[in-house]
Amino acid sequence: MSDPAPICLRITATPVEVRAALTGLMARPDLTGDSDFRQRLEIALAEILNNIAEHAYPAAPGRIGLCLSPGATGMICQVIDYGLPMPGLAAPAGHPPPMTEANLPEGGFGWFLIRSLCAGLTYRHRNGQNDLTLIVPWHQ
Amino acid sequence: MNLYARELADTLVVEVGEDRIDAACAIQFKDAMRELAGRAGTRVLIDMSRVRFLDSSGLGAVVAVMKLLGPDRRLELAGLTPAVDKVFRLTRMDSVFLIHPDLPAGLREAG
């Protein structure tokens, strides 16, 4: 059996377009993986794409390229944008936000979720382009 | 943002009639909940059984709703679907809210 072809999407970086892209992706018959995997994929991609919308393109919505290709251990996700680089030219470590009963965090969970759900994450900024690659494991 | 509220005994039950609470609607969810929570009732329970997906923005909005209820009113959740449950568990927020697997029997609509 040959590997399924990669799924590639172009997305305008706004929360509404991100939602439309994700619901469209999840409905595709050629998307492989079981329901547990799909839930993890959708959560991870939502965090990544909305982070780009918010932080890479703070002034005006730019373009995001997303390619998903099935690999041995999981779905390889390549995400490209042409917005601002990540601070320090590095992907955030994704520590969980400090949590106390008196002061519960309302944000700061995005990169924590990405790091929790993904493996093999690499980030590079070159020639005005952000390249983020990561793997969402088939089984976790 | 479709939220369906009904008061049963001392509980305001809010059913979320959306299949997502995400970055595209988290603020609307929070604002609509703020309006509803201004009503009486000591306990607020959100029925999430129709919500198929929630991201960190949606999670933040649920936390914000709990905060705006203040220390004397509880926020409870019911009917977390698998993807929503994952987000609560991964972020340890499942330890912060009282989460019912299903809508408690006494709070189901009669008939």
UniProtKB/TrEMBL annotation, chain A:
<keyword id="KW-0418">Kinase</keyword>
<dbReference type="InterPro" id="IPR003594">
    <property type="entry name" value="HATPase_dom"/>
</dbReference>
<keyword id="KW-0808">Transferase</keyword>
<protein>
    <submittedName>
        <fullName>Serine/threonine-protein kinase RsbW</fullName>
    </submittedName>
</protein>
<dbReference type="InterPro" id="IPR036890">
    <property type="entry name" value="HATPase_C_sf"/>
</dbReference>
<keyword id="KW-0723">Serine/threonine-protein kinase</keyword>
<dbReference type="Pfam" id="PF13581">
    <property type="entry name" value="HATPase_c_2"/>
</dbReference>
<feature type="domain" description="Histidine kinase/HSP90-like ATPase">
    <location>
        <begin position="17"/>
        <end position="135"/>
    </location>
</feature>
<dbReference type="InterPro" id="IPR050267">
    <property type="entry name" value="Anti-sigma-factor_SerPK"/>
</dbReference>
<dbReference type="GO" id="GO:0004674">
    <property type="term" value="F:protein serine/threonine kinase activity"/>
</dbReference>
UniProtKB/TrEMBL annotation, chain B:
<dbReference type="InterPro" id="IPR036513">
    <property type="entry name" value="STAS_dom_sf"/>
</dbReference>
<dbReference type="InterPro" id="IPR002645">
    <property type="entry name" value="STAS_dom"/>
</dbReference>
<dbReference type="GO" id="GO:0043856">
    <property type="term" value="F:anti-sigma factor antagonist activity"/>
</dbReference>
<dbReference type="Pfam" id="PF01740">
    <property type="entry name" value="STAS"/>
</dbReference>
<feature type="domain" description="STAS">
    <location>
        <begin position="21"/>
        <end position="110"/>
    </location>
</feature>
<protein>
    <submittedName>
        <fullName>Anti-sigma B factor antagonist</fullName>
    </submittedName>
</protein>
